[in-house]
Write a structure and sequence with these properties.
This protein has an eight-stranded parallel barrel, surrounded by five helices. The protein has a two-stranded antiparallel ribbon with strand order 8-9. The longest helix is centred in the first third of the chain and has 20 residues, at about 90-105. Helix 1 runs parallel beside helix 2 and helix 4 packs across helix 5 (about 165-175). The relative contact order is 0.13. With about 290 residues, it is of the alpha/beta class. The protein is about 40% helix and about 15% strand.
């Protein structure tokens, strides 16, 4: 049995002059029926005013193209680290940014915001998990939207939290607003964290369902990995060119338990060109094409 409702797309840019309208056009050029974007640069907190970003024009094109707006995903900026309370200034700024990004996500008409859980900066996973849960409670009590936060599973690089399903479940369990918290499952990250995506993905999903609950899975990031299972490196590779492989990732995209969940490619550019049109075609058809030669 295959997944009949496949929402497959990629990360897209959002720059001048067309901004959000340009994001939608880029997604459509890849044959996508979903996509993910940042509302501004991921490395800083500077944000252009919403009224400059051609949101109305972008949403109009989404409607005309038949894309389900509820499947569109925003990624929060990387600079947020609400797992670190050692600096009150950084912690409070992270909460402010989460609130701001939730409101911006809502303004674009999107319903899901992916968030990296952050780093405990040497104070231990329990410390980081508690800090993040408290920050999420403050943010979700004050943002005034219905946008859901998808905690991204991490590869285990450095002092990250959210590496295991148990850690992610612990974050959710400590939050008061559980109905607005879900998960973004990244195939590269969980492979690098030690989950066997290549050979035992059905078992991985069963474990996810048992520990967290499949109903909390809001987004899947579909990425191959430059490193073998358990490497804790977090280096994405193009579909079929890494250690996970095309067949396994095709199975992920078409897994019946993932029906209706937006699938987002974050694979690297090759020779300064986006690979997403080729990768989306391959993952829909089941036919691998060596497009890099």
């Amino acid at each position: 049995m295959e997944n009949k409702e496949i929402y497959l797309g990629s990360h897209v840019g959002m720059g001048a002059p067309d901004y959000y309208l340009g994001s939608v056009k880029e997604a459509l050029s890849y044959g996508s029926n979903t996509f993910m974007f940042y509302t501004g640069a991921p490395q800083n907190s500077f944000r252009k005013p919403l009224n400059e970003l051609k949101i109305h024009e972008g949403r109009k094109l989404i409607e005309e193209s038949g894309i389900d707006e509820s499947k569109i995903v925003v990624h929060a900026p990387y600079i947020i680290n609400a797992a670190n309370r050692s600096s009150l200034e950084i912690y409070e700024k992270s909460i402010e940014l989460i609130i701001s990004e939730l409101r911006r996500t809502y303004a674009f008409g999107a319903k899901i915001m992916v968030l990296h859980p952050g780093s405990h900066v040497g104070f231990g996973s329990d410390y980081g998990i508690s800090a993040l849960a408290e920050a999420l409670d403050v943010a979700l009590a004050n943002d005034g939207t219905d946008v859901k936060i998808a905690i991204e599973t991490m590869a285990g690089k450095g002092k990250e939290i959210g590496i295991t399903f148990e850690e992610v479940e612990s974050i959710i369990e400590k939050c008061k607003f559980k109905d607005r918290i879900g998960v973004c499952l990244d195939t590269c990250h969980i492979s690098d964290a030690g989950y066997d995506v290549k050979e035992r993905f059905a078992e991985v999903i069963e474990k996810f369902d048992k520990v967290i609950g499949i109903n909390r899975l809001l987004v899947v990031h579909v990425n191959d990995s430059k490193n073998p299972i358990g490497a804790h490196k977090d280096r994405h590779e193009n579909i079929g060119y890494g250690f996970i492989g095309f067949d396994a990732l095709y199975h992920v995209v078409h897994h019946p338990k993932l029906s209706g969940i937006p699938m987002i490619l974050e694979t690297p550019y090759y020779n300064e060109k986006a690979p997403y049109k080729q990768e989306i075609e391959m993952l829909r058809s089941g036919k691998f094409v060596n497009w890099r030669d």
